[in-house]
Amino acid sequence: MDYIITSLQLWDSEIGTTVKNTAIEIAKNHRVLYVNTPLDIRARFQKKDANAAPDHRFAVLRGKTSPIRRMTDTLWVLDCPFTLLPVGQLPSPLFEWANHYNNRRLGRWIKSQAAKLGFQSYIHLIDNDIYRSLYLKEYLRPAISIYYRRDQVTEFDYWRKHGKACEKLLVGKADIVLANSELFAQELRPWNANVHVINTGVNLELYDPGLSHPLPEDLRNIPHPIVGYVGAILQARLDSGLMYEVARQMPDCQFVWVGPEDEHFREHALHSLPNVHFLGHKQVPQLPAYIRHFDVCVNPQVVNSITDGNYPLKIDEYLAMGRPVVATSTHTMRQVFKEFSYLPVDVPQWIAAIRQALAEAHDPAGEQARIAFAHTHSWGESVKVIYRAVEQLRMKNEE
Q1: Structure confidence by residue, pLDDT tens digits, 318-327
Q2: What is the C-alpha separation between 51 and 68, in angstroms, rounded?
Q3: Is this structure's pTM higher than 0.70?
């Protein structure tokens, strides 16, 4: 069957995204139409960061390019040539009206463009898009509707006002529900019995330690041992205070951060430590080289409702490159990765865990075990969960 995907994640995101990789994997066996996150009126007219990458959506809005891009023989990306209403902070009655309006306009647009591609009977996969996709089942009329809770977005400010109620409605009317962790699944099952846990995959072609990974230029003057982090550097997800204390008490180690920082981190005292290095944003194809030349990789998450059940894709990427991992002890880390990572809970334990990980950083047997484990989390294995859920639903409907 064909797939239509609506998501909160931009196709043209500068960092790797779960749903984009999922779409690419599904497109190996099915036709896929990926709907790029539409702009709302406010976002369209807000001043853009002069250093930001060009946004294809603006070119479509200005009529300078086609709203549909063919990425492969079986994969298309659809951009909207119109803006939607900003709804997140509206009072309830006005929110309901505006969100229905957005869904109706978006749904009719997607349906018309899908028809041009010959999509007739299709599966609609909703990736955390709890506002814009809330009523799309009524307008798209898919053969199967799937809701995927990949992240606990309702804890972010934008979704806090209406998000939980909308997600409950969306989960309740979905034919299949996917959850990125068992913790998420437990939270969603009271609203829908057909919940399946799906682990994130890793791009094994990109994160391949057998390939040549030359030392990045900005690592050349940083001595070993190097403790590294790769990914978005955000206050909502990472424990800056923890890492400040760890780095301060381990002056013999260099702590390297690779990724875009939010304002909290840009202004944090971490920048004052001589053994801490922020290297900035890198393109996704560059990331394996950094990971490969770290001695230990870390994921110092702050434990909250956003992170505790989230599946950290970077852990699979670290392990796929053979690196030892030290990470915060979240629910998902304990459930999925406890055999292949250290899970400290305070500063002394973090320091001890990093020391222990450094001692085994270049042990060939340990490296191969980590790589082998990561290979069980390929994108192919991830989407098999979707295929099995669809097949089970079909068999049930035929009974």
Answers
A1: 999 999 999 9
A2: 26
A3: yes
